[in-house]
Structure formats: structure tokens, C-alpha cells
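[job 4471] stage=fold_predict status=RUNNING
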Amino acid sequence: MDSKAIAIALERIYPDPPLHLDAPQLAKIEELWPKVMATMRGVTMPRTPRMLLNDRSKEYFEETRKERFGMPLPELEKEVGGEEAWVEGRPILQAIGAVLKENGGPFILGDTASYADFILVGAMQYLKRLGEDVYERFVDIEPAFGKLYQASKQWLERDDH
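[job 4471] inference complete, writing C-alpha cells
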């Protein structure tokens, strides 16, 4: 993922407003969010081609994920995409929620948005695109995600490209 490299370049070129790449909470998010995605792979990966991709991209995505996970996506969904994924993901989501709430929210640094917030907001937008039910389940587990998403709406207005 090149997002961090892009954020570093943006911070160097446009230092104001700062992205707070030195915030200690960023390291926590960078550690925890991949664990969420690994835990929730049986929920998110099978929906990605169904909900987001055109036919050509869908074929590539399904083949590469079959190689990665050692099974087709429908089988992955059946094997690890049920309630167990949510149970396993809950404590990780709650740990991220604790980071979001430690400075009073809605952003990780309180009233100031940072790169760490954008990681999570991008993920929340992805989840909404997978299905409102997936997004709502994340927010039900940890309401701080919904508060962050609502506070970040201004950055999500244009999504036509």
C-alpha cells in the first residue's frame, strides 16, 4: 500500500494543515487495522467483486484471492465469513475505538483530523460500498466509527472518480 508514502510526500509539499504523521496513535492504527481486515476477510473479500468491480476486474480479483486464500471466495465466505468473524473482530474494533476516544473524538486527535483518521474513514467508505449492513455492524460494535465517519463527510462528498 502506497498511502503512507503519498502522505509523507503531501506533508513535505503541503505542510499546512499537517497530517500529524508523528502522532503515536497512527502506529496503533497501522498495527490494528490490518488485523481487522485479516479477521474480516471472509466478510469483505467475497463482497468486493460482487459490489465494487467490473467484470474484468472481478475475474482478476477472484483469481488472485483464490491463490492468496487457497480457496474460491464463496468458499472463504462460507468458511470464515460468518458470525465467528464478527466475534473475532470485536475486540480489535473496540481497541481501535479506544484510540478514537482517548482524546474525546470524533477524530483520533480530538477535534483535529489526521492521517490516521483518513485510514479509518477510507476503510469505512469501503465498508459502506460493500453494503450498508457491513458498515452498520462495524458501527454497532464500535460507535466511534460512525462518529468519525460523520465528522469526515466533507472529505467524502466527491466520489465520482
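[job 4471] summary: The longest helix spans residues 83-101.
[job 4471] exit 0
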